[in-house]
Amino acid sequence: MRGAGQRLRLDTLDRVAGPGRGWHGPQVDPRALRVGVVHLGLGAFHRAHQAVFTELAAAATGRDDWGIAGVTQRSAAVREQLVPQDGLYSVLERGADGPALRVVGSVREVLHGGGDPAAVVDRIADPAVRVVTVTVTEKGYRRDGRGGLDRSDPEVVADLTGRPPRTAVGQLVRGLQARRSRGGAPVTVLSCDNLSGNGRVLRGLVHEFVAALPAAQGAGLADWITGAVRFPSCMVDRIVPATRDEDRADANRLLGLEDRGVVVTEPFRQWVIEDDFAADRPTWERAGALFTTDVAGWEAVKLRTLNATHSLLAYLGALSGYDTIAAALSDDRLAAAAEALMVEDVTPTLRVPDGLDLAGYRRQVLARFANPALRHRTVQVAMDGSQKLPVRLLGTVRDRLSAGVVPRHATLAVAAWMVYVARGWDVRGRELPLDDPLADRLRAAASADADPSRLVDSLLRVSEIFGPDLPEHGGFRAVLTEQVMRLRTDLNGSSSHHPY
Question: Using only C-alpha atoms, what is the Rg of the chain?
């Protein structure tokens, strides 16, 4: 095997590159790239999505000033993977035609926010940086029950009191504060997380953080941010499962080198971006991104159609003993529930963007979910339900309730989450992990032997998820209780994989 036993690096990549190699190398020369983007949250999704778009955009224009300085948040694992590899990693696409591999070279610097927060602040302050992108997941924004900055969060408190910042919002504000002191070059902060109006949300959190600073620190900063910083919204879409040993083995075989940073994904990728930038930006449209003045329609379609259906299949599938989303979708009853959620509950709530074929989009979503090569685990999609339900499902629930209809399939997804939280094991007796920032609260609220009505009432009282309105809606609560009862009865009494 070419380069067997050697680690992916710039010098080893040069040795194995050549005609007929069966994979694509970086589309730009990584050695020539200068940093122009800081990215907070250097996880698998960013490396499979925005980093790929950014490299392709740089290649299309010949620009050498759009390298990325990626910031890992809590864990140094990604830094340990990528620094010895000169920032290089491979993206393994798994589609119907077999795997395809590309090596990406757009990440030119890897910082550990927890270990060296001063370096993160310094990079954000650098005038050469004109864009800061963010993928820290819903929970990384550290919001309270009303959606604002959680001033009771110990990490937020510590950042506000002056320690080197370790939260994403704290890093942003301290970086912007330092940037202002170094001349105040304009910059764009682009949230790429699954939040409705993600740019607006992040702008609000930044301003709340600034308002909470001591007067001497925050003086004038809010006004400068208002004038010099833009917070556009965007919608991102690409399925990126957790990388498995099998994926690493396939990447290493195709590449002929050991790559400890490989990420796995599907061939599909989409990025819809609000065209509101404070300064220069990569020409992401040359890589297939869509720029628009109205992201909200695209965002709602994706969150309510794709993400909500993903969650429905994750909870029902995991309870039913299915390890992957594709396996769950192979169950005719789960597939019918997914289709009905999209058609009957979600579609009446959408304002469809111009040029989008909604029926075709639904078919495409199901086809992507059915890709058996991805092996996207149900329990991975089930993570952080307390953060995901409000943005994926509960907007649809509220909109349909306001129209006088209880959305049965959206409610089924919420019921499946409740049973998942309370039950803790699938039909095969295997443990289901509760990986959620509110895990302790949820465990205290849920009891495996509680009757359905008590379970529903108890979990509906978690106001960070359901707010003050949904617990008071008798029709929603009644249907939710009925579905929890049916799910639990069928799971306890059936040896099949059908959850209801």
Answer: 23
- The answer to whether the predicted template modeling score (pTM) of the entire model surpasses 0.90 is yes
The candidate with the shortest Cα–Cα distance to 393, out of 441, 436, 346, is: 346
Sheet holding 98-104, edge to edge: 98-104, 89-95, 263-265
**Taking the mean position of all CA atoms in its chain, how far away is CA 48?**
12
Answer whether 431's CB lies under 8 Å from 425's CB.
Answer: yes
Cβ-proximal residues to 470 (8 Å cutoff; 6+ apart), any chain: 394, 397, 398, 460, 476
Task: Confirm if 294 and 473 have CB atoms less than 8 A apart.
Answer: no
Helix (H) or strand (E) holding 68: strand 67-72
What's the token pair of residue 349? 């709530």
465/104 Cα distance (integer angstroms): 38
DSSP 87-149: T-EEEEEEETTEEEEEEE--EEEEEETTT-HHHHHHHHH-TT--EEEE--TGGGG-B-TTSSB
DSSP code at position 50: H
pLDDT along the chain (500 residues), means of 10: 75 80 91 98 98 98 97 92 98 94 98 95 98 97 94 97 96 98 97 97 98 88 97 98 96 95 98 98 98 94 98 98 98 98 98 94 98 96 97 98 98 98 96 96 86 96 96 98 95 58
Distance from C-alpha of 434 to C-alpha of 421, rounded to nearest angstrom: 7
Interatomic CA distance for residues 104 and 86, integer angstroms: 11
The DSSP output letter for 472 is G
Domains of the chain: 10-292 (3.40.50.720), 296-493 (1.10.1040.10)
As given in the structure block, the two tokens for residue 78 are: 């990604």
The residues, any chain, with a CB within 8 Å of residue 32's CB and separated by 6 or more, are 64
